[in-house]
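In the design runs reported in the main text, the only information available to the sequence generator was the tokenized backbone. The following block is the verbatim input for one such run; it is reproduced so that readers can re-run the procedure and compare outputs position by position.
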């Protein structure tokens, strides 16, 4: 894909429940690329069944990252999906958990999804179709046409809007959503993402690193539901500040030439 470094976000490449596949996707699908799904869990015993039972058939590997649950999450997951790979996170935090899961995944494509029932596993097909069609980093968006949310408070909406404006200004991108962790990528790009975050700011880190690494980025529409059971682990102010710090830190070390290259073709 030399010469096709896209520093902007395309419109959703697939929308609605029945994705319309381009001939390119159809061709790529027949090459049988493998798909790993990585699921971080912290006390999700009431939600994990719902998620695992709805994974589409195209998923070839399921990696569950746990280590701190004090409930029956892992036991239930193993009962529902005996082939599941359970990985222990090395330290606390969603970011640390995801990094451990990515390191263990073996599929050509990796898709990360939360275990709280707020993300619909059937949408994984949209991510995989986009990855098949050449996008290297695919981000779910609640605010793209066809997306939505029933799980965002006013404070979070404002915070996400401010952070999205910051990323789009600092990185000259057109993301319609930022703090949403339904993401897929080509596993061979994991190295260039150089992830190191331990907390929720990993979503911001992944996104800006995908930009600075000039990956081909796409958004797909996604609908976010309320967490089905249990307590959220996110703290809006603390995690928002961490995301902002990540945005600024990464921007300061970014060579100006990288950004300049990306704005040239106006797409
Ligand atoms: N392994 C592991 N998983 C975690 C940790 N913290 C959060 N998670 C998981 O990460 C996913 C997202 O966490 P949530 O608490 O739902 O946070 P959120 O979705 O950003 O916030 P809400 O919209 O309020 O639910 C869930 O599947 C959690 O179980 C952690 O320290 N370790
Ligand atoms: Mg959640």
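Verbatim output:
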């Amino acid at each position: 894909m030399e010469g096709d470094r896209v520093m902007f976000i395309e419109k959703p490449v697939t929308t609605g429940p029945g994705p319309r596949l381009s001939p390119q996707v159809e061709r790529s699908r027949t090459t049988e690329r493998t798909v790993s799904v990585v699921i971080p869990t912290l006390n999700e015993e009431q939600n994990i069944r719902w998620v695992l039972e709805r994974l589409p058939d195209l998923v070839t590997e399921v990696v569950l990252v746990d280590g701190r649950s004090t409930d029956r999450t892992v036991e239930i997951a193993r009962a529902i999906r005996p082939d599941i790979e359970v990985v222990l996170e090395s330290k606390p935090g969603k970011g640390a958990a995801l990094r451990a899961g990515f390191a263990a995944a073996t599929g050509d494509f990796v898709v990360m999804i939360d275990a709280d029932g707020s993300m619909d596993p059937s949408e994984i097909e949209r991510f995989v179709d986009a990855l098949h069609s050449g996008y290297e980093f695919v981000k779910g968006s609640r605010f793209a046409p066809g997306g939505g949310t029933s799980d965002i408070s006013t404070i979070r909406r404002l915070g996400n809007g401010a952070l999205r404006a910051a990323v789009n200004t600092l990185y000259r991108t057109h993301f319609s959503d930022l703090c949403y962790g339904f993401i897929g990528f080509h596993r061979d790009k994991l190295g260039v993402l150089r992830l190191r975050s331990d907390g929720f700011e990993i979503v911001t880190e992944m996104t800006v690193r995908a930009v600075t690494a000039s990956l081909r980025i796409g958004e797909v529409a996604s609908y976010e539901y309320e967490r089905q059971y249990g307590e959220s682990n996110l703290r809006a102010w603390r995690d928002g500040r961490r995301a902002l710090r990540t945005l600024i830190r990464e921007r300061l070390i970014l060579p100006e030439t990288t950004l300049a290259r990306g704005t040239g073709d106006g797409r």
